[in-house]
């Protein structure tokens, strides 16, 4: 009964990488390079966190998502981690799967299971993007 415990906004951020890779890269609508720009480099620039985030350069955080382009998944609430009780893309088939995720070089997700330590996040001070 406490509305403040409900998730804010609409679900979809967890599905975003898979959908854009599947519908964009796999269907040859965008290049792999454009995918990286849209999903990593440009948001890091917009939010004033580049080059610590959004690229693979010496001194950057080495946040990496490994995508298996040969896998197929069906998006469903059952296989997502969102706090929301539904999936906007329920039943959508994507032509890829997230294999693993590295944060600052450390493996934190493998086979859809979180392996990181609670509280290992770091606050990133933003800089003006322009």
Topology:
Elements: H1 13-25, H2 32-46, E1 64-68, E2 73-74, E3 93-94, E4 97-103, E5 106-110, E6 113-114
Antiparallel strand pairs: 1-4, 2-3, 4-5, 5-6
Distance between the terminal alpha carbons, to the nearest Å?
Answer: 44 Å
How much helix, percentage-wise, in residues? 10-25%
Report the C-alpha radius of gyration, rounded.
Answer: 16 Å
The sequence of SSEs as H and E is HHEEEEEE
Question: What attributes characterize this protein structure?
Answer:
130 residues, alpha+beta, two-stranded antiparallel ribbon, 2 helices
Structure described in brief:
The chain has helices at 13-25, 32-46, and strands spanning 64-68, 73-74, 93-94, 97-103, 106-110, 113-114.
Give your account of this protein's structure.
By secondary structure, the protein is an alpha+beta fold. The chain has a domain at 11-60 and 69-98. Helix content is 22%, strand content 18%. The chain has a 4-stranded antiparallel sheet, with no helix packed on it. The protein has a two-stranded antiparallel ribbon with strand order 2-3. The longest helix is centred in the N-terminal third of the chain and has 15 residues, at 32-46. The mean pLDDT is 92.
């Amino acid at each position: 009964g406490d509305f403040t415990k409900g998730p804010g906004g609409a679900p979809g951020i967890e599905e975003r990488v898979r959908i854009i890779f599947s519908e964009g890269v796999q269907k040859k609508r965008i290049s792999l390079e454009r995918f990286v720009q849209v999903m990593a480099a440009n948001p890091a620039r917009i939010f004033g966190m580049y080059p610590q985030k959004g690229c693979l350069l010496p001194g950057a955080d080495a946040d990496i998502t490994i995508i298996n382009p040969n896998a197929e998944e069906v998006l469903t609430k059952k296989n997502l981690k969102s706090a929301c009780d539904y999936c906007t893309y329920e039943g959508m088939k994507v032509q890829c799967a997230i294999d693993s995720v590295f944060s600052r070089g450390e493996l934190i997700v493998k086979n859809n299971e979180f392996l990181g330590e609670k509280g290992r996040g770091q606050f990133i001070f933003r800089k003006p993007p322009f």
